Amino acid sequence: MANGLLDVGDGHRLYYETWGNPAGTPVVVLHGGPGSGCSPRLRELYDAQRHHVVFFDQRGCGRSLPLGEIHANTTMHLIDDIERLRRHLGIPRWWVSGGSWGATLALAYAAAHPQVVDGVVVRSVFMPGDGNVRWFFGGLAALRPQAWRALSTALWDAPDLLAELAVRLGSADREAAGAAALAWLRYEQAVNDPSAPPPSPPLEERDRLVDKYRLQAHYLTAGCFLNEEDFLDACVGLSGLPVWLIHGRDDVVCPPSNAERIHACIDGSRLVWIEACAHDPFHPGMAAAWRAALEGEQG
């Protein structure tokens, strides 16, 4: 396994590591969030014998430096970073994979650089633009009323929850910022799994949560720096390329209609539904479909 920090300019250095078989099929992994960083558990979704996997933490995320930095941090910067990383590693062509926000980024990167992409495998795709952001911080109140009410109460019933979160997370008051990050974390978990107890991370982890959610707020308040119509138009250019869209039928974070609309734009793409599955990448059905797509065994 190789790893390092790649200087991509603007004061940013990306942490990356490779895993698996250096002679195998190259696959780059784009994590979600924005802001989450790559989890070691993602290795479960790839085959160490078949794949030469490239993991990296996007600008400001995980082990990349400086952590939480939002300066010069937009989707276009990330697309350029992915291409710079490919060239740095000397990989002529690769498969691109990602989940949730990482799925959006994977499709955007592939549309910008189709000449170096052999295929795309994504799950639980997030649709950029204001509409999906409004859904997450407003529309979900109808489906997850208790979760939404808890978040709203924590933010003193602010009229715009995301805007209020962004202000608090950017505050010099670390206690207020930490409370906002914890409220966001609990909201996410309650939306994904209403039966789970509220998470209570130790105090020493709060600063990392603040960095993560400050970066996420930076992206979401800008609609992830992508216009929905332009994004769908770009996806049309992926027609003819092997593209798998894997989506849980019960996903409320990224509604199934996202996958349907993208599938309709990409001629020849394959849409795989996972029954009784929400937004969990490690759901048995989701993981099985993911591995099969990467092995070229779908349909």
Can you put this structure into words, describing what you see?
With 299 residues, the chain is α/β, with parallel strands linked by helices. 39% of the residues lie in helices and 17% in strands. It has two domains: 3-127 and 227-294, Alpha/Beta hydrolase fold, catalytic domain (Rossmann fold), CATH 3.40.50.1820; 131-223, no CATH class. The protein has ten helices and eight strands. An eight-stranded mixed β-sheet has the order 1-2-4-3-5-6-7-8, sandwiched between helices. A hairpin with a 2-residue loop joins strand 1 (3-9) and strand 2. It starts with a strand and ends in a 5-residue tail after the last helix. The model has no long low-confidence stretch (mean pLDDT 95).
Write the layout of secondary structure elements.
Blueprint: E1 3-9, E2 12-20, E3 25-30, E4 51-56, H1 75-89, E5 94-99, H2 101-112, E6 117-123, H3 130-137, H4 145-154, H5 161-169, H6 174-192, H7 206-220, H8 228-236, E7 243-248, H9 256-265, E8 270-274, H10 284-294
Parallel strand pairs: 3-4, 3-5, 5-6, 6-7, 7-8
Antiparallel strand pairs: 1-2, 2-4
**How many structural domains can be distinguished in the coordinates?**
2
Architecture per CATH nomenclature, i.e. the level-2 architecture of the largest domain: 3-Layer(aba) Sandwich
Strand order, largest beta sheet: 1-2-4-3-5-6-7-8
Low-pLDDT stretches are none
Using the coordinates shown, work out and report the CATH topology of the largest domain. Answer: Rossmann fold
In whole angstroms, how far apart are the ends? 33 Å
Gyration radius (Cα, Å) is: 18 Å
Q: Give average pLDDT, whole number.
A: 95
Write out the CATH superfamily name of the largest domain.
Alpha/Beta hydrolase fold, catalytic domain
The helicity comes to 25-40%
* Contiguous helical run count: 10
Strand proportion:
15-25%
Number of strands: 8
Shape: globular
Element order, helices and strands? EEEEHEHEHHHHHHEHEH
Q: What's the CATH class of the largest domain, please?
A: Alpha Beta
Biggest sheet: strands, sense, closure?
A: 8 strands, mixed
* SS-derived structural category: alpha/beta
